[in-house]
Amino acid sequence: MASDSHASTPVDDLGILAKDHVVIGDSSVEHHEMYTREGLFSLMWHPADGDERAVIMCGGAMGGTLGGGGLYHQLGEQLAGRGIAAVRVGYRVPNDLGRCTHDLLAAMQLMARRGARRFVTIGHSFGGAVAIQTAAAMHAELVPGVVTLATQSAGCEPVETLGDRSLLFFHGTHDQILPAASSQMVHMLAGHGELVMLPGEDHLLQGARDEIAERLLVWLPDVLRAAEPTDNVPDDPSA
Questions:
Q1: pLDDT tens by residue, 219-229
Q2: Model pTM above 0.85
Q3: Are 90 and 42 in contact (CB under 8 A)?
Q4: Which residues face 35 on adjacent strands?
Q5: Could you tell me the CA-to-CA distances from 171 to 6, 12, 164, 197 in Å, in that order?
Q6: CA 20 to 30 Å from 49, out of 55, 101, 113, 198?
């Protein structure tokens, strides 16, 4: 991958002091920890070697890598079984939109080093804004789609710039933390995409985990397959 050897990249800018990783149990899930001056940057990586398609998932304002009801772990395992790599990002500084977006860009760069060429970002709650801002920083051929789960509306304004990229918004009708109007507003700002209302579900969407996963296991491969392949992914994908 071509890059300017003198240019700073998202991974460079993390200022990694030390790093370590293990493979969890008998699974292929890799737990990576990178120690930085601003906190611990962690990745739960579900590898799918040899495939150019990848999904990056991020949590809410308090961080976390599970997603509501363990959705992210379930989805990562299922996607890897279908040849699509997935990473769950643990933020260095939760609830800092700029730094959290930087973390997703760094995760994208690390995945690109292992062969990923097309990405979809997925974010829950505050992470919806992170997923949208990350996509907005990238070319459409690199990030052709975004998924939000019970997203906040603050910080999602760049959804207006995503053009005709594929967008999918989920929200529970009984969310007591962020009302469904938040996703409705982001959907309206986008001017396209699909809003899926989940009757009776609260902010974590735990009761709809299987329904969401089933939908995404069709939607994600379709979006990533339809995207134009590119051989021009720099070491810093945001370049």
A1: 999 999 876 55
A2: yes
A3: yes
A4: 18, 40
A5: 43, 36, 21, 5
A6: 101
